[in-house]
Structures are given as C-alpha cells and as structure tokens.
Amino acid sequence: METESEPYIRLATLRQLHQVVADLNTARSLADTLQAVADGVIAGLGFELSAVNLVRPDGDLVVAAVGGSAGAEALMAGRVGSRCSWERRLSMGDRWGDLRFIPYSEGWVLDDDDVPQWHTPGPAPRFPDEWHPMDRLFAPLYAAGASGGELIGVISVDKPRNGRRPGAWGREALQMYAFHAAVAIGNARLRGNMQRALLRLEREQQALRASEESFRQAFEYAPSGMAIAEMGGDQHGRLLRTNDALCRLLGRPASAMRRFSFSDLVHPEDIGTLLRTSAEGGRAELRLARRDGSYVWVSLRNSVVADAADGPRFLLTHVEDIEERKRHELQLAHRASHDSLTGLPNSAELRARLAARLCATPPRPGGGYDEEAASSDGTDAGGVYVDAAGHLHGFDDFECFGTPPPAESVPFDGHVHTIPPNEDSNADDGHKGLAVLFCDLDGFKSINDRFGHHAGDAVLIEVARRLTNGVREGDTVARLGGDEFVVLADGLGRADAQDLAVRLRNAITPPIRVDGRAVRVGASFGIGWAGCGMSAEEVLHSADQRMYIEKRSRSKERRRAG
Questions:
Q1: Where is the PAS domain (predicted)?
Q2: Of 74, 107, 484, 521, which has fewest CB within 10 angstroms of its CB?
Q3: What is the mean pLDDT of the chain?
C-alpha cells in the first residue's frame, strides 16, 4: 500500500475506500454483499487477494466469497474451516488493533490445519517490512461492529500491491473497512430475513384466504346446520352467523337468527345441558324451537375457537337434525316400558315409578323417621329437616323464632319420604299418602273362553281406557299382566282412596260392545299404601292381598259377569 510520506496517495485511497463502502450497501442480497466485501478489499485497500469466511449456524466458518483470483476462488469457495482452528489463528501472532497478523516465521504451524488457504512459498524478506507469501493477515467481523460483539466472520487478505506489510494507515483502513463490512453483512442478513418473513407472511395470508374461502363454502353449503356464536362478555352465546341449512331447520331467516342465542331457542328442560355443552366445548342432544312454536331434536357438536392471548372467543356449532332418530328411540323406549296391547305402563315401568318414591329408611313408631338411619348414607342434610308428618323445614324456619328444630326432626337427605296412613285406625285421620289400588277383573276368563282372545283383548283395551279416564292427570294406571291393573294415586286419604276405588269399579261394570255383542266384567280392588322402608314388591303384594280379601268378601252373585 502507499507509504507514510505520500499523503496525496492516502487521500486517493480514502476516496476509493469510501466508494467501496458505499457499494457494500447497494448489494441486493447477502451473497452479493459478501462478494462486494471481497471485491472491495481488492479495489479499495490495495490487496490482490481476499476471502470472506462466514460463520455458519453450527459455528464453523465457510469461505463465502473470494476476490482477486479465479484460481483461488475455485480452490477455496464453499470450503469449511472448523471454529477451533479459526480461534487458534485469531489468538496467534501480532495484534494490530482488531486485526491479527501472523508472520511467516510463526505461521508455518498452520499449514496443515483445516482452514482453506491460498499461499505460495517464496524467498526470505529482503527488508524488514517486506510482505512474505506465507504471511497471514485477518480482519475479524463482529455483529456489533466493534470487537465486543459476536463473531460473524473473518476477512483474510494477501499480496499487497506495494509488496510491503501494511503501515499504520493501511491497518486503520482495513480495520475501518471490516467494521463497515460487518454492518453491511448484518444489514443484508436482516433484509434477507425480512424478505423471507414477508414471503412467508404472504404465503400464510394466501393460505389463510384460501382456508377462509374453503371454510366459508363448507359453512354456507353444509347439508346440516352450522352456527358461530360469541363467547364471553355481555353478548355471550349470541349467534353471529348461521348457514342456510340451520335457517331452514328452524324456519327462521338469517337476519332473525342473529337476534337470538341458543339459550333463547332451547327447550326449557334442556337449558342445563346447553350451558354445560357451551362451557366444555362438547356435544349434546337437545330440543330447539322452530318459528311455528314446535321443537325439533338436534345434536349439537361444539368447538371452541380460542385466541392464544385472549382465551376462548367463538363457539363453532354443528347442528344435526335427529328428530327421526329420537322419534324411533322414544318409540322403542315406550315399547320397552309400556304394554303393547293397552298402551299403559307395564309391570317394569310400574315398579320403577313406585321404587322412585321409596327409600330404605323405615318410619319410627308413632311417625317420623329415625335420625341415625336417615343419615346413614352420609348425605349432607344441608340444613333441611323433615318433621314427624313428613313436612320440610329449613334452619331459618326455627332460627327466625329463636328456637332450635324439634328433637324428633331428622336431616333432609334430598328425598321426600313417602309416609303411609296409620294402620292401627280405620278412620281417616286426614293424612295424605300414596295409594296403590290393585284391580283384578271378575268374569274375564269366561269372556276369553266363550268369545276368544280377540274379544278378551278388546275388553282389556276398553277397561284400560275407562281406568285412565277415571284418574287425575299425574296418576299412574298400569297393566301388571293378564287382567290385573294397578293405579298409583298420590295425595289421597283413606276416604279418598275408597271413593276412587268405587268410581273406578262403577266405570268398569257398564257393558262393553265387542263384535256386536255386549259383555260385562266386574272388578275387585285392593287398596295398599306405599311407604319408605318398603320395597316395590312389598307394596304390590300388600295391595294384592287386600284385593283378594275384598274379592272373597263380596258374594259370587255380585261378582258374576260375562
């Protein structure tokens, strides 16, 4: 390079250096920038050969660009030197600021390492600052521009045109150039990352637009109902969007659907199921209201669309019409629990309804229920008590008067006890209980024998109809089997039950028209009373025994029918 005594040459070099630094920032890619760094050493700093070694993600350095020699480029470009070998080089030799100079007298130990290099042997220097072909000069590149940053590469230079080792000015120029080269490489990497990010973002946006369009078409043209509802906030559950299939299913236009939430449309009995489903993002079967006021059975399958930052935002709901399947299920359930001939609840259904009113806790003598037995299942009473008459009281009922609950009261375990009337007295003491009327038809066998089973079936159907018409709504009329029927009537006293038995007997005895002839049957009723501490079988057996007692107490003439 130029000598210290020629300041005008320094100025020309400075202009060249300024130009090559400017060229570094005009490169369009990282590869162009690296080549510009290598070429800038040749054009602006007076060296005939340069190489840019770039740190790879694994830490090793690869020769990314070579300037000044096509032969050197063919030999070195793309070759890799290990990080440890480079660290060894940067720790040797003379430190010229951030530069590292390894004279030929020390560098011979590096001839056989794995760092790509281009060196030729030559004679010993003729004067002290003459450049030897085996001399090595490296300019480290740091991410922050200064030596305190992360090493991102190394510029290696060779063959100064003036044949001399760089002086103070040449060293400063090379160090300054390395600083700007590191900044240019960092900027090129940043631009490359930004370009890749923008390209990736554009691809993601294109994929998102394609996905949105695919979702829109799948949503709008789905054969079953689809809806998007809001989650959270004041508008929780409000329908934001519905497809044509759901609008047709419910008979409502899309504009009207946006005024509702599913809780506005669900059957009152299914609101709990809906709330659990909305919270859990699962599935449920429930009824939704149509515009005409009718309800349709649907299957809801929910998916919670969540936002990573804000939590759940929307509820995507698939609504499938299951009305036909539900109708079949109800028909099957009805057939399983009802008599196929009369349509009345069958024996199994009767026992299930009766068992639902009973528990295993027996009453104490004199009325009421034993406290230890009532709480033996460990159920928390929750501050509710049952008195001797079976009435419910809360703590507040007593505390408001400053008195404790009576000693004979027991904790309420969630079950209202069924208490039978006092068996020791035939008088009606005003107590209301669950009456079980066991009915057996008199003279039915003779009808079957004389006129056939077809006539017998017609008689059973008519008797079932008359019994059903003779009881209150909420009472149960069941066919136990054969010509035996059972009536469950709650809230009756002894006199009420007797009156009901008389009314039902009188309803049965009028003639029944079968195939153009009139036939008659009688009926014997036994009245039993259900009470906790009894099983369903015990209750029915008690009523059955009383029916036979009543049947035997009536004269044969009065029971004759046919």
A1: 211-293
A2: 74
A3: 83
